[in-house]
Amino acid sequence: MTNTSRLFILLITLATPCVSSFTVNTRQTSPLSSCSSLKPPSLLQLDAKKQKSKKKNKGSTSGFGGAAVVPCPCGSGSGYMKCCGRLHNDPAVFAAATAEEVVRARYSAYSEREVDFIVGSTHPLNKNFISDIEHWKETIRMNCYDNFELTSCEILDETYEGEGDKQIAKVKFVAKMTQVDSREKTAFQETSSFERAGKNIMGGAWLYKEGGD
């Protein structure tokens, strides 16, 4: 699929503004998959390794109730709804967020099963972007990190290069997690690159393009 085709597909799927969620709708076309095994697992590359879990799948914690007071998974110390939950639930807040805030929100999205946000915050030129959005979202749900507790996303560095529409943001971070059954702690480091895909795509928000060492 060409870069132009990917941008066209995302423009079509996001043509209708979304006020209260990041739901993306499109017709299913073919059973595509973007998942593969990783060593170590990478939360932001959308190719999590599926694991058999004893932990019940939890639904989205969007909204109010308990989510308003529980600590945010990113480790900021703030409540979820005052931190990453704002980006998950309000497209305007997401559009105005820094690249660092988007990194934290994507990390928390895996913990909170905010699949729409994971898809919506991915750049259409990301190598794992799938035009069959509904199949992609189902694949993410099946491969979320239910067997891990996501405990902290530590930002090490944030830099911006270029100007205007050509600007690129790079965020270096350490993602930490704890295995549910063994309580073994693990972590990995990544430098993620973000670019904007135009004002008509997620309000011009920073979108995850690729990750590296």
UniProtKB/TrEMBL annotation:
<dbReference type="InterPro" id="IPR032710">
    <property type="entry name" value="NTF2-like_dom_sf"/>
</dbReference>
<dbReference type="Pfam" id="PF17775">
    <property type="entry name" value="YchJ_M-like"/>
</dbReference>
<dbReference type="InterPro" id="IPR048469">
    <property type="entry name" value="YchJ-like_M"/>
</dbReference>
<feature type="domain" description="YchJ-like middle NTF2-like">
    <location>
        <begin position="98"/>
        <end position="211"/>
    </location>
</feature>
<feature type="signal peptide">
    <location>
        <begin position="1"/>
        <end position="21"/>
    </location>
</feature>
<protein>
    <submittedName>
        <fullName>UPF0225 family protein</fullName>
    </submittedName>
</protein>
<keyword id="KW-0732">Signal</keyword>
